[in-house]
Write a structure and sequence with these properties.
The protein is of the alpha+beta class and 430 residues long. It has helices at residues 31-39, 91-98, 116-121, 159-165, 197-210, 247-260, 264-275, 285-288, 309-322, 365-377, 392-396, 402-412, 421-427, and strands at residues 5-6, 11-12, 19-20, 24-26, 45-48, 63-66, 73-77, 82-86, 103-104, 138-144, 150-154, 174-181, 183-184, 187-196, 213-218, 224-233, 279-284, 297-305, 331-336, 351-359, 381-382. The chain has an 8-stranded antiparallel β-sheet. GO terms for molecular function: D-arabinono-1,4-lactone oxidase activity; FAD binding.
Length: 430
């Protein structure tokens, strides 16, 4: 058992904005080992996967559970097109594991570093009308409660735990296995190109209807936007280009200039637009969805009623443009289908997803504090894995099944061992 526990090492998230020194690191190599650790301990327990959340979900001075060794395919159902995997399985490994089985993820975002449990537990998502987040695809889960009880949940057994656990925030216990609904594997064709921002805002509803996936990035101090669409394809995969512009390196350098030199942010944004060239490529879905994300940033994201999404974008752009704040990273706009997971930000409504970012070289708070009230005005719900300032009082007003989710959490964790300071702010009424 000693090999599964250590008392050394700082935890930090991907951007470096969240750090903690756990009293003990748990790295169980099996579910049985995890059960023994929980039963033989006291105090706070938090869980970490890839550390790709920007919020303080994983911070603890108590026991921090790493899921790194709980990884890999458990089973699959060829007829139902479902697959069960260990909770620590990285998304970037899922595609190549599912492909020989004839399966593919129905949707995913442009970052695939997250663990399966982290992606489901925070309702991580891609884009596409009619396509839900990872939480919407959960058909079953297995978790170990803080007391060491092992529970299986699906639509016929412990259905309430499934609905609460599909977006769990790691607050119910330690999820060890997740069953996802998949689809037959498929290829995607990507096109990424520039359009005038005004044209994007006027035509995006049509783009979203006419493409399987559509999204755009709008810079705050240029009149152009980057549009990306993805569609299923039977064309042969495109070869790797001989040269790729090191986009992340350029983004990193221009961000530091934009934030270090007064008035340089508009110039750097125009430079990025000038350097952009149209992208066309075809490949397996899991190869096309992700994009490199080496330039580190912090992020705020809210999910709004779809009908008001573009209106909100215009207000955010205008508000930032009228301010003296510097920012290089663009606003990102996507669409996500409604789902039934109780604490999913997409519960019960088709949504527009709007993200804003700041490079790690600068303080994100002035920009996020300026924009966040606009998201509230439009009825936005925050992405659980990203930065926001709402507490339980305000969050409860946004979720029709809030009380049900709290009931299940208190049933599974009556002592509140799975709660850190951040989660107590989010989930416990003062």
């Amino acid at each position: 058992m000693a090999s599964a526990v250590s008392s050394q090492g700082e935890w930090r998230n991907w951007s470096g904005s969240q750090r903690a020194m756990p009293g003990r690191w748990w790295r169980p190599g099996s579910e049985d080992q995890l059960v023994a650790l929980l039963q033989g301990s006291t105090g706070e327990v938090r869980v970490t996967g890839a550390g790709h959340s920007f919020s303080a979900l994983c911070k603890t001075a108590g026991n921090l559970v790493s899921l790194d060794h709980l990884s890999g395919l458990v089973s699959h159902d060829a007829e139902r097109l479902t697959a069960t995997a260990m909770a620590g399985t990285p998304l970037h490994e899922s595609g190549c594991v599912l492909w020989p089985l004839g399966q593919g993820l129905i949707n995913q975002g442009d970052i695939d570093a997250q663990s399966l449990a982290g992606a489901c537990g925070t309702s991580t998502h891609g884009t596409g009308l009619g396509l839900g987040s990872f939480s919407a695809l959960v058909r079953g889960l297995r978790l170990v409660t803080p007391s060491g009880e092992v529970i299986d949940a699906d639509s016929s057994r412990n259905a309430d735990i499934l609905q609460a656990g599909a977006t769990s925030l790691g607050a119910l216990g330690v999820i060890t296995q997740i069953t996802l609904q998949n689809r037959p594997n498929y290829h995607l064709a990507e096109r990424e190109y520039l359009l005038p921002l005004a044209e994007v805002l006027s035509c995006f509803e049509g783009l979203a209807r006419n493409n399987r996936h559509a999204e755009f990035w709008a810079f705050f101090r240029t009149d152009k936007a980057v549009v990306k669409v993805l569609n299923e394809s039977t064309e042969p995969p495109t070869p790797q280009p001989r040269f790729n512009l090191p986009v992340d390196r350029v983004l990193d350098i221009t961000s530091r200039i934009a934030h270090g030199v007064a008035g340089a942010d508009a110039l750097m944004q125009r430079l990025l637009i000038a350097l952009h060239s149209e992208v066309r490529r075809v490949g397996r879905s899991y190869q096309i969805f992700p994009s490199p994300r080496a330039s580190r940033f912090n992020e705020m994201e809210y999910e709004l009623p779809l009908a008001r999404g573009l209106e909100c974008v215009e207000e955010v752009l205008t508000t930032v443009q009228r301010s003296s704040l510097r920012t290089l990273f663009p606003l990102e706009y996507r669409t996500v289908a409604a789902d039934e997971a109780w604490l999913s930000p997409f519960y019960g409504r088709d949504s527009a997803s709007i993200s804003i970012h700041q490079h790690v070289c600068t303080d994100y708070r002035p920009l996020f504090n300026l924009v966040e009230p606009i998201f509230w005005k439009y009825g936005g719900r925050p992405h659980w894995g990203k930065l926001h300032s709402l507490d339980a009082v305000r969050l409860a007003e946004l979720y029709p099944r809030w009380d049900d989710a709290c009931r299940v959490r208190e049933q599974l964790d009556p002592q509140g061992r799975m709660l850190n300071d951040h989660l107590r702010t989010l989930l416990v009424m003062p």
